[in-house]
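Researcher: Let's try something more involved. This one mixes different molecule types, so please make sure each is placed in the same coordinate frame as the others.
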Amino acid sequence: MEQTGRRDRGGPVSTASPVSSARVEGVSFAELREAFRFLWPYFRPYRRDLTLGYGALLLKNGAGASMPLIVKAGVDSLGTGFELSVTLQYCAWMIVAIFLKGFFQFWMRVLLVNVSRDVEYDLRNDIFRNLVGLSGDFFARTRTGDVLARATNDLGAVRMMAGPGVMYWMETVTLAIVVLAIMFTADWRLTLAALLPAPIVSVAVGILGSKIHTYFQAIQEKFSDISSMVQENLHGVRVVRAYVQEEAEQAHFARLNREYIVHNLKLAKVSGLFMPLLELLIGISFLMVLAVGGWQMMRGEMTVGDYVMFNSFMGLLVWPMIAMGWVVNLTQRGMASLKRIREFLEERPSIAGPPHPVTPAAPDGRIVFRNVSYRHEHGFALRNVNLEIPAGATIAIVGPTGSGKSTFAKLIPRLIDPSEGEVLVDGVPVERQSLEALRGGIAMVPQETFLFSSTVLENIRFGAPSASVEEARAAAASAGLGPDLEGFPEGLDTRVGERGVTLSGGQKQRAAIARALLANPRILILDDALASVDNITEERILRELETAMSGRTTILISHRISTIRQAQRIVVLRHGEIVESGSHEELMARRGYYADLCERQLIEAELESIS
Ligand code: ADP
Ligand code: MG
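Model: All components are placed in one shared frame. Result:
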């Protein structure tokens, strides 16, 4: 996340994203069919409303198309002389037609727009469900802002395409078929004259449509950039202040925002061309009808009623024609967005459980590492590690920063998979167990703890929602949070602020330990989980933890000797390899890396106590 942000800042920012330049073509019919094949399962549950909605659409169009016919009959009846009762009768028919049209139009909109909302709701749930199941590597390469943009903006665009877009398209097509059929039967020459500008319309729609598609895609990419930057700055607001980078950040934001606006302005220009162009072409149609129709009327080839009917029909087609331009617009946007959403939905977790998981016969918390190596793009984080941790043992792992301690810890609950070798938990290789069962037996407190913005109690109960308040309190006490709770204004019910900002680093770590204990795991892993507390507090917590640790396999990771000297076994990692292992006394006797580290820390502690 950090890296992407920095990279953006480096070189000159190009206005055209690679995506926008690569996709200049419009949307093909095959692509549309593909899109609707994908969306159909989402519409399926709402078949009934969909049918009713489109039924209402047809009835609405029927009522609409009957209106010019009523007008024609009314006008023609005047030819034989004016009679009030007859005219009133046509007026009554007209009122009925208008009423029916309005009635069915209302239900068409309500039903079909509601269905599109339901589909949006289901899609959003699916996006979230897929997202929470993804593995760490996805989140390492995806920015939060990008995720947010796709789950909000893009989803909205897809809804507009699949809901109102399809609705207006159907409305236009069915109405055009009925109206053109009537017009052709009445007078095919006049109809052809009226349709003369139609080919120009379709060409214009095609050209402008593909431009809209391109700009819209670029806009969505920029929106992702902007969301990411806002999100990162909110997250890192303290860092920004501490390094007095407010102005630099503002300048960078202004630049992103400008690019966003530039693309939006381009889109507005293209979209803005649509309306005047359509109105111009529609005007030409009316002109053609006036010229050709007038000439025919003068020659007595056409009645006034027919002429009025023609004009009414054309008036009826104006709105759907305009809507058509809008539909093309919506479709271009919707297709661009659907592509981005499907990329997310098609992401599969890189780490998944096997189809036929093996359940360990005797789940006791035993852990075995067999020739385990973990390779990343720059080299090895772990190399050929062999280690056996007996059930219920407490072992400590010590080593300098970057020696592979966290990598070791992450391999146990399969947050990552080894490049070589295998890890066994409860006597069964981890990749042959179900992920839920494996992770359900392990609680890991990572270096950077995370608290949800809710109460202390809810945070502690996160892994065991059914635990009682008393159990949560006991877990908090075991984690050394007892005295702090008394200081909190509302005890366990104190809210911790977003991501726990109102707690100190040490309090957050202890809350995270309490959460791990309450989950009652067979295996407890504390990855530098006490780094943010002072030595004295640490000793107190370790003493309190002792009872909680008994009966569980515990892995204590630390770079502090005081934390780990009590462990039954201490493993020293350097450059991803185990270089020493044994009890505190054994390692001291070896006078190796551990003994050095120990001596150094003793001297440091003495210096501290002097000053
Ligand atoms: P420790 O917890 O002992 O400080 P880690 O296990 O976190 O060490 O990391 C060991 C080394 O491997 C570090 O140098 C780290 O930068 C590197 N590393 C671990 N995972 C990756 C990865 N996915 N990509 C690049 N480097 C990684
Ligand atoms: Mg670490």
